[in-house]
């Protein structure tokens, strides 16, 4: 996962929810079909992919996909 | 993404292009080639599908309605459950109950859970059901008290479920976590906690013995395979108290239960020989050269043979489909001093050089079964691929060059899972061997009439009692061919019919000169004013074409007339597998009487009642007013 684009592909293919760059910047509540359970799936997948452990309280508090991407790449 | 297999890649393509719903019937075969991790990923994509869209596009795909309730966050179970059902060609129609609502859902007969009338209710319990209510500091006695309260509560909820719902309730045992045991610093208390925890789990497991609506999944064997029970972060931050790999294992068990309820339990195990049942190649190594005991590989194959024998003793029909010389195979099974499986353990041994899918199709036909009822085990990727391609409904267990893992791979899935074993299960293999003798006997006659006359068929028609409930339910779940309406009945459904003053359940037993066939059929009747409705008529495929159905219908029609009925009604709902009964009703004097949805209705006016065939001796144990 080298870019925000890669990250959005991962959300689309692994979580099953198609998202684009606009969705990434907006509030998670505005992403069609998104709910908190998808966040858990995404966390699991991100940790598997990056081999890093993410700070769950920070990720759970994130308000947008772009925020989560930043947390994942800086973890 | 780095999809590992072509099947996973294809699924992803279908998902990306939005064609997954339209191509749903292909999903089953695609899932067959995935490993466990890929299966979970596929489940996430499938769980996003609109069930109504899939149903609209493919009305023939059987749907299983499942409500998931319980204590913690359970949404992570849905992808695994979706994938496990899809593996069996079933479509999951899931309803996730609100968080931690299981007590309200199950205690109130008016709850949304009951109104939805699901086929299955999964009430997923976790250790926090107990520890959320244990005070700090705590002693084992505190845990014992909460455990007792919770098991009492669950027992009451299960009783309400039984009285209210017609589906099946699934509970599970509670994993005991080190994060709890290790809080006790003295080993004596730790041992005490371990003992009382397991006593509570044992109580949970025993609840199902007295409650036919209940199944309790034991999570311990899944944990013993190395599945982590809980993710400490997700339990704290998300109240998801059971780890995803454990939920995936649980979903697999539920998938096999769902398959059983949908009437798709496998009946027959077809084994390859060289490299599967024994080590080595019989044709090259000879009887003395194949490995079935004593050597390293030999012991691994012996362990596998013992598992096959164990399954065979519980009603699974064992067969061989092998590319070998028939005479050499017969000799090896008969004469090898260390062989565990013998000729007698198999209902059929097919050893020749014909393609295996042709052999399997023919074998299924000779047993009056569909290839979908088979589990095929082979160490050759070529043969496995051939069967997957030619017979997509046959389950394929692909073993490899490590024979110690053969039994693990065979048992990884509960292909033969059934609710309760019956006497018929234990005697099934012997019954099929008797059938072989019947076929040889048949070939010594020039006409079917002569044969039937000499076969000396006896049929006993009786009233079902509580002790026949498991077998009658099993017949309704296993019988796909002689099943005019394919209405599946779980044990509690049969019990309800026995208690229903307007319903009657009749049992059909048969025997002949070659032995007992056991309880081979059932008739479900309903009285409605001066009409008698035959709601269904089941007959085991083993006893087709002997006039047994005519004898039974003759008796039922006679009783209906004697009891003052003006007509007897019946119906036929066509499926891919029940064509054998398409003309059952007209053949016995029923006239077409319109259609009812996808069913064709028939009516018998009771003027011209067929006779009991001359070659059958009918013992009629049902009352004069029957029906």
UniProtKB/TrEMBL annotation, chain A:
Residues 9-70 form the Carrier domain. It holds the Pfam family PP-binding. It comes from the Bacteria. This is Acyl carrier protein. InterPro entries: ACP-like_sf, PP-bd_ACP. It comes from Micromonospora sp. GMKU326.
């Amino acid at each position: 996962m080298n870019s925000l684009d890669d990250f959005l592909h991962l959300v689309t293919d692994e979580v099953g929810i198609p998202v684009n760059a606009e969705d990434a910047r907006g509030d998670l509540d505005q992403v069609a079909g998104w709910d908190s359970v998808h966040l858990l799936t995404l966390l699991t997948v991100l940790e598997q992919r990056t081999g890093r452990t993410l700070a769950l309280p920070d990720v759970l508090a994130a308000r947008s996909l772009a925020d989560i991407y930043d947390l994942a790449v800086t973890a | 993404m780095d999809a590992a297999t072509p099947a996973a890649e294809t699924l992803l393509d279908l998902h990306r292009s939005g064609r997954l719903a339209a191509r749903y019937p292909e999903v089953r075969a695609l899932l067959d080639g995935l490993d466990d991790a890929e299966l979970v990923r596929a489940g996430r994509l499938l769980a996003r599908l609109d069930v109504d869209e899939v149903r609209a596009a493919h009305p023939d795909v059987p749907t299983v309605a499942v409500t998931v309730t319980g204590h913690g966050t359970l949404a992570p179970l849905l992808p695994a459950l979706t994938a496990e059902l899809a593996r069996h060609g079933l479509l999951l129609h899931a309803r996730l109950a609100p968080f931690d609502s299981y007590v309200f859902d199950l205690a109130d007969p008016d709850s949304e859970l009951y109104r939805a009338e699901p086929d299955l209710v999964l009430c997923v319990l976790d250790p926090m059901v107990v520890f959320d209510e244990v005070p700090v500091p705590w002693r084992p006695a505190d845990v014992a008290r909460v455990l007792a309260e919770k098991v009492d509560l669950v027992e009451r909820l299960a009783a309400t479920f039984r009285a209210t719902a017609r589906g099946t309730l699934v509970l599970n045992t509670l994993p005991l976590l080190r994060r709890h045991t290790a809080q006790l610093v003295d080993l004596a208390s730790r041992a005490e906690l371990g003992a009382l925890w397991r006593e509570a789990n044992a109580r949970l497991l025993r609840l199902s013995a007295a409650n036919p609506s209940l199944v309790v999944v034991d999570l311990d064997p899944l944990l013993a395979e190395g599945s982590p029970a809980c993710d400490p972060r997700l339990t704290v931050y998300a109240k998801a108290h059971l780890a995803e790999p454990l939920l995936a294992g649980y979903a697999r068990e539920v998938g096999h239960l769902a398959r059983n309820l949908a009437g798709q339990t496998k009946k027959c195990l077809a084994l390859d020989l060289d490299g599967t049942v024994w080590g080595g190649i019989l044709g090259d190594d000879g009887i003395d050269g194949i490995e079935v005991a004593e050597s390293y590989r030999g012991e691994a194959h012996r362990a596998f043979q013992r598992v096959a024998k164990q399954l065979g003793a519980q009603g699974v029909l064992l067969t061989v489909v092998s590319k070998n010389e028939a005479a050499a195979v017969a000799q090896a099974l008969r004469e090898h001093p260390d062989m565990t499986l013998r000729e007698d353990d198999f209902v059929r041994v097919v050893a020749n050089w014909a393609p295996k899918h042709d052999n399997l199709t023919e074998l299924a036909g000779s047993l009056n079964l569909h290839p979908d009822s088979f589990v095929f085990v082979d160490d050759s990727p070529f043969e496995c691929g051939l069967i997957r391609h030619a017979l997509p409904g046959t389950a394929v267990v692909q073993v490899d060059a490590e024979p110690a893992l053969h039994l693990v791979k065979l048992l990884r899935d509960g292909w033969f899972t059934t609710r309760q074993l019956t006497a018929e299960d234990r005697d099934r293999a012997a019954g099929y061997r008797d059938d072989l003798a019947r076929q040889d006997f048949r070939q010594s006659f020039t006409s079917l009439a002569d044969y039937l006359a000499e076969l000396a068929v006896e049929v006993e028609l009786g009233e079902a009692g509580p002790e026949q409930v498991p077998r009658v339910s099993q017949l309704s779940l296993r019988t796909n061919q002689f099943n005019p309406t394919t209405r599946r009945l779980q044990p509690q459904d049969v019990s309800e019919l026995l208690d229903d003053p307007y319903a009657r359940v009749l049992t059909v037993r048969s025997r002949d000169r070659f032995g007992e066939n056991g309880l081979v059929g059932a008739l479900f009747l309903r009285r409605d004013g001066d009409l008698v409705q035959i709601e269904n008529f089941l007959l085991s495929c083993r006893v087709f074409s002997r006039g047994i159905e005519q004898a039974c219908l003759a008796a039922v029609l006679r009783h209906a007339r004697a009891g003052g009925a003006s007509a007897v009604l019946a119906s036929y709902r066509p499926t891919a597998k029940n064509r054998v009964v398409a003309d059952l009703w007209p053949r016995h004097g029923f006239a077409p009487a319109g259609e009812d949805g996808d069913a064709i209705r028939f009516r018998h006016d009771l003027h011209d009642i067929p006779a009991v065939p001359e070659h059958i001796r009918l013992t009629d144990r049902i009352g004069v007013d029957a029906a």
